[in-house]
Amino acid sequence: MKAKPYGIICPITHACEVLEPRWTIPILSEMWGGSTRFNDIKRGVGNISPALLTKRLKELEANGLIERIEDPATGQVNYLRTQRAIDLEPALDALASWAQCNIEAREALCDLDVSNLMWQMRGYIDPEQLPRRQIVIQFRFSDPGLDYNTYWALSRPGSPVEICSTIPGFDIDLYIETDKVSLTSIILSRSTIGRELDAGRLFLSGDAAVARTMDRWLHRRTKEDGLEVRQLDLAEATP
Q1: CATH topology assigned to domain 10-87
Q2: Cα–Cα–Cα angle for 33, 81, 29, nearest 5°?
Q3: Rounded to an integer, what is the distance from CA 173 to the centroid of its chain?
Q4: How far apart are the C-alpha atoms of 204 and 138, rounded to whole Å?
Q5: pLDDT digits 0-9 by tens, 18-44
Q6: Could you tell me if 215 and 226 are in contact, meaning their C-beta atoms sit under 8 angstroms apart?
Q7: Confidence of residue 208 (pLDDT cuts 50, 70, 90)
Q8: Model-level pTM greater than 0.70?
Q9: Who's near 47: CB < 8 A, 6+ residues apart?
Q10: Is CATH 3.30.1050.10 the classification given to domain 110-235?
């Protein structure tokens, strides 16, 4: 009789007790992506309440997966992953790979949170591929029931890209009309800018040079990028 894999029941049960509570894995994945402060983790994870995030962080600390570090001079708090959490990276990567092969893409994408998507857009816009001046890109989403349907990406030479829900007094260089499935499909390399334009799910207007070079300044995920998009990985499946 073939032996069972190591830890088929008991260790997996214990792992589930630690990782199963809702938001635990997205929190660890967001921290894997580099977020260490409470507000940054909250923005990256999405629709989690401050009270629940506080609870989950305390649980992760109690389980030895993160360390809470407070600067006594400033009162600033950072949350850092311990080696126990870092050792989970291969398991999270395997989970993302499984999702890519087994979760229906459109169904998963429809559950995506737009504010979370736009927060992560900071890492998907490459300012080096944009004109060397201030560039403002407006994203308007047609999805129903959104708390906010319009966001602005602000790119300035020598500074990281900013995502704003208000952009007073700045001229808009490029207007993008889309929906969350269309934009995320492009980012995840499940569709192309040309295909979405032809299908009428993506509309571009404004600066012609910025519009024409969208395929250069908008980073598209490849398999080699790993778990870089964290939450979005659960949507990675071929439509």
Answers
A1: Arc Repressor Mutant, subunit A (1.10.10)
A2: 35
A3: 24
A4: 10
A5: 788 888 988 998 888 788 999 888 887
A6: no
A7: very high
A8: no
A9: 113, 115, 116
A10: yes
